[in-house]
Amino acid sequence: MAQVGFSDLLQRAEELSSGLETNLELPHVQRSFQQLLDAGQKLCSKTTQQQDDMQIKASLLLCTEGKDVPRISDKLKSLASTTNNLDQLQTRYETDIEGFLQAEHESAILGAVEQQKSNCLKDMDQRHWKGIVTSWEKEKENILKSLIGSDGNLQFIRDTPASKGSEMFGNIANKKGLPSSMKPWELAYSEKVMAYIDELLSSKSTLPLGKHCENGAVKMKTTEITSMWKMVNHIIVSQNQNLFSGQRDPKLLLQHAQQYLEQTYREYMLSSVYSLAQSAELGGAPSTLNLVKSFLKISPVSTNQICDGEQINGSSVWAIIFYCLRCGDLNTAGKVAKTFEYICPDFNIWINEYIVGGQKLSLSTRTTMKLHFKRTVRTSSDIYKIAVYCIIGKFSFMDEHKEIVKKTEDYLWFKLCQVNIEITSESSDDLSLKQLQNLVSVVYGEGHFHANDNPLLYFQVLFLTCQFEAAIEFLSRFDSLLPHAVHIALVLHENNQLYTSGAQATLLTEINDANSLSSICILNIAQLVMLYTQRFELSNPSIAMNYFYFLRDVQHEGQSLFEKCLCELIQETGEYEMLLGRLNSDGSRKYGLVDKYCSDPKELITKVATVTEKKGLYEDAVLLYDLSGNSDKVLQLLNRLLCVAVSKTDEFHPERARVKKLSLDIAERYRMQNTVTAASLQSTFHLLLDLIAFFDLYHADQHEQAFDVLSQLQLLPTDTEQVSEFAQAFKMHSDEIRQNVAPLLLASMNLLTKKSTKSSKTERTQLKKTARALIIFAGMLPYHLPADTTSLLVKLEVQLK
């Protein structure tokens, strides 16, 4: 059969279409087959164009990311073909050497590809988890900041669940059994802080807090932290504390910082010489001069330095003078200058004045020396000579001296030697303390010192330049270094060397000081301590109290922050008995932990009770007021608690049984001890207890006994003639009694109704009179009774008729 073309089919279709009758029910074709064909081709062209557009958009997207689409396509095709070739590796026979070698070659390539693939997946996995950990650390930091407050202010009021307060004098073994949440460094510091506080409170000879902390660092055997504490103590604690009379002395502090750097460098020189004793040829008397000579023999810098042709054992005379200054021995430096006076007679005079004047030259001498330096010394080939002149004369502080000053400690020492603390205006050739601080913290900053990688180094830089507050705030940013930052802050605070702010300020605040050229950073010591103690205050409240004691002189809203923090701690932990003590059966008070800090803690207990009362924890407040000896407040709160519990039942309201037992115990103890209280409070208290007894009998269906108690209370009239008298008397009762008139009337009417079923006709008549008196009494009360109460009373009275 011959193949039929598309055009023939089209022609036949048209003939068939023309032969259709128009009277059929089939719908008419609106388009011819040629029209349908054209429409189909148009749709096909549009689809192809859309696919091309998608490819174009994809190419543009990849090109914006720097991807070459044609090259990527070629690489994918070649990779696919390579994969297929590798998958189709054929087994070679041992006799086919060429094939065997080719197979080994391809296998090696395939192994390398698989190994690289495995390494890539492993690296991706590590990067993935590292990103998750980093994200989580940032989230934890944000959570911590939110706890402090979005504005950086302390949030002192913390919500305490009501259920916690109800267990306040319960067994505390569950708290004591909790494992400590404190880390090793926190525990080590807490022991030393406790020892310091105990010595301070016992009025014994107190070892400085810094020394306590240093001993703790030595015990932990961490070299970097031990060195840090040695630095802090050398600058602050080891000096005569009488020098610090509540005001920071920058001149003295910078002097101590310079001495610390000189002392540590001398130790470095000794260790270097002893480690290379044979090359150093250390001998003779143990003096600074012999130490410097030996050190210069092993120092690679000193061999090429010439001092105007003068040398000592192959070393520059100026180098010897420089290293004598570097290790803090000014007298030896002066003796060397005297020995070689013929080199520069004027310098011998200048250095002697520098030594005698406390590392200071007069203005005229300094001007002369600076002129001599510019004329001759600046162009000298001896780098040590230039450095010595810059140190003695305190000029050219912008010179780096990179050949000599290679470490951060050397740089700091050099700049500290050049600081002129007494200048009152900035000079182009004078280095002020403000300029030095800006130089290390602003010009260089954290990036230059790689602060995130080596935070202790940057902390040392800030601390040695008297930027104590900024140094502590920087160190506190690192979670692992927060314990060190807190205790350094406490050491400075105890030595009156820390500028602190109010409790509502941010952690670090910078203000301009009108009395100096530099701005002052103020640290919120309270916020720092609170940030630290919140780690363990719930599991170790006794340790947290020691840290709060450092805030005893910080005022907040007219109150010692120590007391405020204690109140918050007691409220949050609920350990009232352990922290505040408790009352014994004989009325004496068993001491709590607060007695360690307060000779008479009643005022503190009262403040805790006041806060507890404001939070609505009335049962806890009752026991706290009772502990502080405020019996009137005890009865006042008990009346409030009994008022809402009078008409309830113990079975369905456990709080009623608890309040009733507490009230009865206190009532018995007050009676035994003849405790004096306000007559009105005492009268209301006992009347409420009587009403409690009445409703207990009423709910227990002991109607006769309940009726007898009600008669003895004489709160309700039994005859219409008594209504006016009882209504006037009822007005004199306290609000706690008046609030219970509705349930009392209903209970009384119910008792009358039940009693009438078992009474004689004469008794029933008297019961009806009593019921009528109750109805009239309810109507005469100047209080609006609930509508259902009035209707129930009327219904019960009708039942008596």
TrEMBL record:
GO molecular function, one term: structural constituent of nuclear pore
Keywords assigned: Membrane, mRNA transport, Nuclear pore complex, Nucleus, Protein transport, Translocation, Transport
GO CC, alphabetical: nuclear membrane; nuclear pore
Domain of life: Eukaryota
Subcellular location: Nucleus membrane; Nucleus, Nuclear pore complex
Topology within the bilayer: Peripheral membrane protein
Main location: nucleus
Stored InterPro entries: Nucleoporin_int_Nup93/Nic96
GO process annotations (BP): poly(A)+ mRNA export from nucleus; protein import into nucleus
Pfam families reported in the protein's UniProt record: Nic96
Metal-binding keyword on record: no
Family: Belongs to the nucleoporin interacting component (NIC) family.
The protein's name: Nuclear pore protein
Gene coding for it: Nup93
